[in-house]
Amino acid sequence: MNKPEDELTLHLHPRPQEKVSLDIPTDTLASLKKVAASRDMSCEALLKLYIGQGLREDLAKSFSKRVLEATAEVKAEAYFLRGINSEYPTINSHINQSLKGQIHHKYNHDNLS
Predict the structure, then answer these.
(1) How many CB atoms lie within 10 A of CB 29?
(2) For 2-11, 13-22, 48-57, 68-77, which range has the lowest pLDDT when averaged over its residues?
(3) pLDDT tens digits for 4-24?
(4) Secondary structure (H, E, C), the chain
(5) Cβ contact 69:95 at 8 Å
(6) How confident is the model at residue 85 (pLDDT cuts 50, 70, 90)?
């Protein structure tokens, strides 16, 4: 069995990094510093956190869109093989509405904050 101190050890694998320069409006930087201080973290760590969250969200949406499109293709092919051609536009219509709903929800959510 593991020792209690071993169970809480976080093992990070270093990844290659690259320095970037970023111009941020003064008021935004001031807000970032306040939020970082309230979370007891550096401004750089907070920026990395925000970038990581946004990137994961966008990648997840992209993946889910590809899954929905692949599902539509499989279903359309199955309908075609069964001779049910009238269902194909319905499948695409549902997927397009779902994707539009995600975009609409994201747009409205972002504008509320």
Answers:
(1) 14
(2) 2-11
(3) 655 667 677 888 989 999 999
(4) CCCHHHHCCCCCCCCCCCCCCCCCCHHHHHHHHHHHHHCCCCHHHHHHHHHHHHHHHHHHHHHHHHHHHHHHHHHHHHHHHHCCCCHHHHHHHHHHHHHHHHHHHHHHHHHHC
(5) yes
(6) low
Q: Which of 29, 54, 57 is nearest to 44 (CA)?
A: 29
Place of tokens 């539009």: 100
Estimate to the nearest angstrom the gap between the alpha carbon of 16 and the chain centroid. Answer: 22
Which of 36, 9, 112, 99 is CA-nearest to residue 63? 99
Tell me how far apart the alpha carbons of residues 92 and 76 are, in angstroms, rounded to a whole number: 9
Structure tokens given for 81: 């093989």
Phi, psi of 13, rounded to the nearest 5 degrees: -100, 115
- Sign, CA dihedral 55-61-62-63, equals positive
